[in-house]
Amino acid sequence: MMRFQKGDKIKIVKVLDPTTLSGDSVDKYIGETGVIKAIDPEYQYPYEVTFDTLDSVNTLWGEEEIELVSEEQPEEVVETKPNQFLYYNDTKRTVVIHTATKSHGTECDMKDIQAGEMRMFYLPEGSFPWVKMWDYGGERGLQLLVSPTPMGQEEMKAKKNVDRVDEIIEILKSKDVSIIDVYEALHNLKKWVN
User: Fold this and answer.
1) Which of 146, 149, 191 shows the shortest CA–CA distance to 168?
2) How far apart are CA 60 and CA 25, in angstroms?
3) Which sequence spans correspond to the domains of the chain?
4) 78 or 28: which carries more pLDDT confidence?
5) Do residues 61 and 45 lie in contact, with contact meaning Cβ atoms separated by under 8 Å?
6) 63 pLDDT more than 80
């Protein structure tokens, strides 16, 4: 019996025979994610994988080389809590944090954010991030301001409803959910939205 199924989200965890990589580095593949698009149980490398971001001719993998990736919580995602803002610098340039970020009440590491880095900003309770980025060009480059903005009544109500919807989604994801639980969750959602 095959350990994985067509459509499973997987990641490469090891390469048993580096000579099968057509001269590519093993590091190029470790940690890469993809989806199993076909299975041939008769073959030494039975799983044909379509990678999410990697463009490669090496698409066949063995059971010991891959593992399932949870769709609910991919490893790359950093979970944030209320009143936190996670910034990912995908600009390929250094981003300087504007000094007003700290003076406005946001707590963070004020070091420059290098290309490919993430930075967490902590905001006061009852606020949401107002974010602005400037491009000064040349040596001054990119500058980021993260300023806490107080939530009004409408924002607080919307946040509460989003939290409740998240709770309902978690209930519905549960494996032992019954049709009664689904009906109750939807009924509560209707009450909360109105």
Assistant:
1) 191
2) 16
3) 9-68, 84-150, 153-193
4) 28
5) yes
6) yes
